[in-house]
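Give me the fold.
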Amino acid sequence: MRDQEKDQLRRAILELLAKGCCGFTDLEKRTVASCMAFATSNTFKRQLYGYLVPCGYVERVLRGTYRVTEKGRKLLAVLS
């Protein structure tokens, strides 16, 4: 996956989360259905669990519920 594709996928995830707390399943379905050919369940999980959560852009509120942090909002502004 190229860096540009990663940034597009990260932006899509952060935009959905910026609208409010979101459950994992709903977030995954909306991201994968975003008509990006490279947006699969595996790439979504890699970006969420491998980058956004560990780096502090997204936080886990409850089991299966996530929200964007202030750091994530700044990243979203840069990616937009």
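Strands lie at 22-23, 58-62, 65-68.
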